[in-house]
Amino acid sequence: MTIQCRTSEETAKLGKRLGQVAAPGMVFAFRGGLGVGKTCFIQGLAEGLGITDTVNSPTYTIANEYEGRLKFFHIDAYRLNGAADFEMMDAAYFLDSGAVCAIEWSENINEALPANCSIITISILDDGSRQIQIAAGALESELS
User: How far apart (Å, rounded) are the C-alpha atoms in residues 90 and 105?
Assistant: First the structure.
């Protein structure tokens, strides 16, 4: 499914809707260039999970953990050089924990992603709005 968001508020609201329907163990793999709105979407996702802490991109720490309705890991793979780097961080700790995981720059660790993860690709259109493509299987009907 493809959705156009005209503002960062709309992007966060879409993320919140996804967080409200997320189930334990779901992995969301985010793709898109710098500044497209991945973190904004994930902040909304965290809000939908009932997380009240400030959620920032973990570019330097690589992973942040939050508690809400479900445990939530926000992972930034920007500085990782492939799946081997992620495996060295104990990828199973994140992916097999039953927590919801949101992974920015997921294309950097593509080989480590579970086959059933949901791919969310964000791009900027000429008018500055965001085009968000969500391949989330059964969740897509929850978001329309």
Answer: 18
Q: Give the distance from CA 81 to its chain's centroid.
A: 19
Strand 2-5 to 27-31 pairing:
unpaired
Tokens encoding 46: 């965290």
For residue 121, being part of any structural domain is answered with no
Among candidate residues 40, 15, 37, the one with its CA nearest the CA of residue 28: 15
In a domain, 119, yes or no: no
Residues paired with 132 in a beta bridge:
3, 122
Q: Alpha-carbon distance 76 to 57, whole Å? A: 7
CATH of the domain at 37: 3.40.50.300
How many domains are contained in the chain?
A: 1
Q: Is there a contact between 55 and 66 (Cβ–Cβ < 8 Å)?
A: yes
Q: Is residue 73 assigned to a domain?
A: yes
Determine the length of the chain: 144
Could you state, in chain order, the average pLDDT of each consecutive group of 10 residues for the chain (144 residues)? 95 96 95 94 98 90 94 94 88 90 94 92 96 79 63
